[in-house]
């Protein structure tokens, strides 16, 4: 019996239905660059889901690519984006945003979520242009980089503040599936489209081989967007590869079914950990867990499982990051739970 | 009977063996970010093919992406790249190279190929720094954007000149398969690795769903290369998608078999066109043809076939661009040839 | 008797009146960053001259700085600027524009001037976005880099074409004084303001220690401009240095008086050269001359004068570039003319 | 009697000797672009002062310009610079560094000074490339943005740590004069040259009309530096303007005499404030003071003096920023001190 990985949500390939669709449609000749029938259909399906016929939708291969194109196409050179210090763009994209010329104004937040109250001091601190950058966009994630989620009222308040202050609101949805499928989530994709200016729907971490949908709701951000895709190397000549996948994910409820499986597997692990009276670094209801376990138990678990040692808590305890996905096998979850007791 | 497309070499999906491999390996857990077993194996296969164990190899999703990362990682801000005006980076990448901060010094050449004699005047014109950029890299393509190819002696001469003048030589191999498989080509992949500093091997136009291999031969260009992949949004979390494809293409002769099919189909069309006494804009032995046909014949052909009207020649004739690929069906080629006679 | 330089128009310091003004106002406390009284007054003087009270005016230290800020603040990342191959931004600014991310679309023109007929093919060639950049601004110079000038009807036609095609028209006026003071010029600064969207008025080459005025006429280009000055390192803390100089140049006719002197000195040289039956590479009525002289005469002249060997014409003749300025001494011009006969 | 400004150290023009030198040398013909005799001589004088004949020295017009050129010429695209959150590049340059593509890794420090202990956690946090930027340079200021200074042992320790960890050390010397002239400073310019890789010597805030000297000590950072000056619009055609000023400042002890005057004036104010039992936000021995005064006293002082309200301390007290300079008149200092008592 070999080790099983809970390291992340991109350890396997794609949901079998996606490979079947790719195979079935493989030799049909199609237009290039995202103008294929499948991409068109996938966009229509998503527009229906978000209840917005006027959204502009584009498919790209990954999250960093989506983020850097959305931000650099929206901002003028002197404008900046506000993010939590935990924000993926801030910490884990090798300076991708700065490489397009823009500063990120960071805010420290333990739960990774931004509120109006967090933004106000940043705006005040930048109220003496032209000597400072001009914040013009807010970056948030749902679920966040540490598994937390926004409620509808939280998002609405942030969106309204943003619009009163000439700020765009951009939600990174690399884990949108898991976020919206969380038991305590009170939002739908249509709500996201209502209370953001632009957002992404992550495919890579939720059943696709690769792919993120960029959904632009605010008209100001739509103009010439495809030029930016091309310039940044994100326009696939075989755009069908992305169209077919999103068509498959959204032609029924597959996208959310897969996310719910991931959340369910995480919940099972979390409940078992809680039952053993272990704590968590942060309360997550999505597919990322941050349990704090004794080091000797961790060492024992590492004989059979792979996960990430996130943060040293003290001499005897460490917080882990464990991630489940659409592909997580319940038998492995059960095996993990069984081994949760120290020897 | 519907229209059949000779518009480009990315109108279909992938060679069936690739989809089969993706399906078969789909649920094996693998490391992310290109550290999967398949990518490792694919790199080993390519290193063998190019007879260079020390090359650094990376897989990315597309040609523009490969080009902008190779160039921006190699050049300092004041350095430029020399290209033909036909070079893909010059004309068809929406300013992707300039967007990373670098000027392209262009040279007009009807055949799309650069020689030492073409480069010398550019170097002389830039011999009064710091008031001008400093050329530091030469960009060539094989086959070129108009289907021509380099011979070994041409490439060697250019490479030697480049190295005597502190210039890197970068070959864009988006159509490397077709280029090296041309009947009049006298080079192998190992020759390419010998006489360039960095080159790409195109998968997208030769049987893959997507994917280009970046092969770095010159040690100077290897350092920290993966940081640039990540920063530009080119590092797939499921790098396996690219690894599996290149493993399949290079585990036997599939890559070149597919290219030879494309070339063979192009040759068949070219021979038929020549037999009718029509001319070509440029002599191509690869999978891109530029026949000059009478407008009324073109209109007739357009009822059943799709191709690109490349350039108006005179009031009665137009040069077309026709492209064949690994997926081109010989029956359609035959149908096209049959319709080559004006009514 | 030592050598005298006709190499360029920035070989001496500043017109004495400028140094006197700097000295006289030296210890008056003033606000920083261009908000001093002198800058405010200088702007008012220029607005009167251009007959446009709503123009936004900024002073910067040099031409490359002005160019890169104007262009990068106006264009979105996928937009490009059209220029003659002789344009200063194209050839002599070390890739400054590309370093801000923008491609320059170049047009070869012997006289350095662009017309509607030159621009049209560029626009046609870029009519298949998103695969190519989107031209959005035209760059011209007056006088041009080779001493030629625009007439009012030429400028008006270009401006009207630009506006019909969603292009901004930007005139680099590094040598605006000499250009507008040429005997065959039929324009005033007010005409320039009428038929461009943004232009500069060069101080460095016309009597100032340093300094260019950026005049923005089109409202679209005014927004947040000062942020860009700051970001690119162009906002002087002691902006008074520029304000005092432009105040002095424009409080009476000094700016044009100096330019007329430069032109008059050039004319005197040109007439003498013509009288000897020598030709010119280009017909210039401004302060730059490009005479074609026999090499032995050039060698003789070089014993006493400094100028630039611009271009080899044939084995026995070379075209020179000779430049006069506000500071050129007539006695040296006479001495030069006397030596114009080969031994 | 009007208001007198302690707002900053760039409220007046230049020291009279500088204007006299500019006037005296005004009409001597000189080479352009910094190749004039005065720039050459000024560089020789500085090399002597720093006891380093091999340093590469360049003059530019301002601090932001110097910072962005030094940093962007030194770093590759994926490399970052470490700075205090108070660092001028971090907060007051409108994203100038990010606009060249580079992230700033920030460290919060109340005294604005960085130590080895501050840097270590940043390096640990960035020890998992390629998913994060690679810190490659440390930015410090002396005196800092809040008036504090480094001791020789502090600088030496930081420099040694930097070199052990492949980091360049860059000192922003916009207020180098005041910093090195502080009573508690134990360093000379030669020490700065010994324990940094590159630094600047600020002229603008210490007697010049404008101008910063960039001094590159580390050979790695010298290559092609002038190309970057040109590309960023920092190469003056009349470089003599900067050369003459630095020649005047460094041909005797003028540079430090002016700084000592500024410090002396600040000390006089500080002593008077202390005598009244008021406190300071930070202990400064240089020309920037941050006294905490009662709001009603501040209001009274504002009737006659201009200074900056830096930070609200509580409901009744505010910290000010007051700056003295080479031009500060002792009579005004005395007048200020006299008014220090609340009514």
List the helices and strands and how they pair.
4 copies of one chain form a homotetramer.
Chain A (H helix, E strand, L loop, with lengths): L3 E2 L10 H9 L12 H13 L6 E5 L2 H12 L4 E6 L3 H4 L4 H4 L4 E4 L8 H10 L8 E8 L10 H13 L3 E5 L3 H5 L8 H6 L3 E5 L9 E5 L8 H7 L8 H11 L3 H22 L3 E2 L7 E2 L1 E4 H7 L3 E2 L1 E5 L4 E7 L6 H9 L5
Parallel strand pairs in A: 1-12, 3-4, 3-5, 5-6, 6-7
Antiparallel strand pairs in A: 2-8, 7-8, 9-11, 10-14, 11-14, 13-14
Helix pairs in contact in A: 1-11, 2-11, 12-14
Explain this structure.
In chain A, helix 7 links the parallel strand 5 and strand 6. The first copy, chain A, is an alpha/beta fold and 343 residues long. The radius of gyration of chain A is 20 Å and the shape is globular. Chain A has 14 helices and 14 strands. At the A-B interface, strand 1, helix 1, helix 3 and helix 10 of A face strand 1, helix 1, helix 3 and helix 10 of B.
Summarize the structure.
The structure is a homotetramer of 343-residue chains. Chain A has 343 residues and is α/β, with parallel strands linked by helices.
Strand proportion of chain A: 15-25%
Poorly predicted regions of chain A are: none
First and last CA, distance of chain A: 19 Å
How many beta-strand elements of chain A? 14
Mean pLDDT of chain A: 97
Shape of chain A: globular
Oligomer: homotetramer
Number of self-contained structural domains of chain A: 2
Instruction: For the largest sheet of chain A, list the strands in their spatial order.
Output: 2-8-7-6-5-3-4
Largest interface by residue count?
Answer: A-B, 52 and 52 residues
Helical proportion of chain A?
A: 25-40%
Radius of gyration of chain A: 20 Å
CATH class of the largest domain in chain A: Alpha Beta
> Secondary-structure element sequence of chain A?
EHHEHEHHEHEHEHHEEHHHEEEHEEEH
Largest sheet, strands/sense/barrel of chain A = 7 strands, mixed
Q: What is the number of helical segments of chain A per DSSP (H or I, 4+ residues)?
A: 14
CATH overall fold name of the largest domain in chain A: Aspartate Aminotransferase, domain 2
What structural category characterises the helix and strand content of chain A?
alpha/beta
What is the CATH-assigned architecture of the largest domain in chain A?
A: 3-Layer(aba) Sandwich
């Amino acid at each position: 019996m070999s080790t099983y990985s809970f390291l992340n949500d991109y350890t396997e390939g794609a949901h079998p239905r996606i490979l079947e669709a790719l195979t079935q449609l493989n030799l049909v000749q199609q237009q290039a660059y995202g103008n294929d029938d499948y991409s068109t259909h996938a966009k229509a399906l998503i527009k229906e889901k978000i209840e917005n016929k006027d959204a502009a939708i584009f498919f790209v291969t990954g999250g960093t690519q989506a983020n850097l194109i959305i931000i650099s196409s929206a901002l003028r050179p002197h404008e900046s984006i506000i993010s939590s210090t935990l924000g993926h763009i801030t910490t884990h994209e090798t300076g991708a945003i700065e490489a397009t010329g823009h500063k990120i104004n960071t805010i420290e937040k333990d739960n990774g979520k931004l509120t109006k109250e967090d933004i106000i001091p940043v705006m005040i601190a930048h109220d003496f242009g032209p000597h400072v950058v001009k914040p013009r966009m807010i970056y948030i994630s749902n679920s966040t980089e540490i598994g937390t989620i926004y409620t509808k009222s939280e998002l609405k308040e942030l969106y309204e503040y943003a619009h009163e202050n000439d700020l765009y609101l951009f939600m990174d949805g690399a884990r949108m599936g898991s976020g919206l499928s969380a038991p305590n989530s009170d939002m739908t994709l249509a709500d996201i489209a209502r209370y953001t200016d632009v957002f992404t729907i992550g495919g890579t971490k939720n059943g696709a081989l690769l792919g993120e949908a960029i959904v632009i709701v605010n008209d100001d951000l739509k103009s010439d967007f495809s030029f930016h895709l091309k310039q940044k190397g994100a326009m696939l000549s075989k755009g069908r590869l992305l169209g077919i996948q999103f068509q498959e994910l959204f032609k029924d409820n597959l996208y959310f079914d897969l996310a719910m499986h991931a959340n369910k597997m995480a919940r099972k692990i979390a409940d078992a950990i809680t039952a053993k009276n272990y704590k968590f670094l942060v309360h997550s209801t999505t597919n990322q867990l941050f349990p704090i376990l004794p080091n000797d138990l961790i060492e024992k678990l590492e004989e059979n499982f792979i996960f990430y040692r996130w943060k040293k808590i003290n001499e005897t305890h460490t917080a882990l990051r464990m991630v489940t996905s659409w592909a997580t096998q319940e038998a492995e979850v059960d095996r993990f739970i069984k081994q949760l007791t120290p020897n």
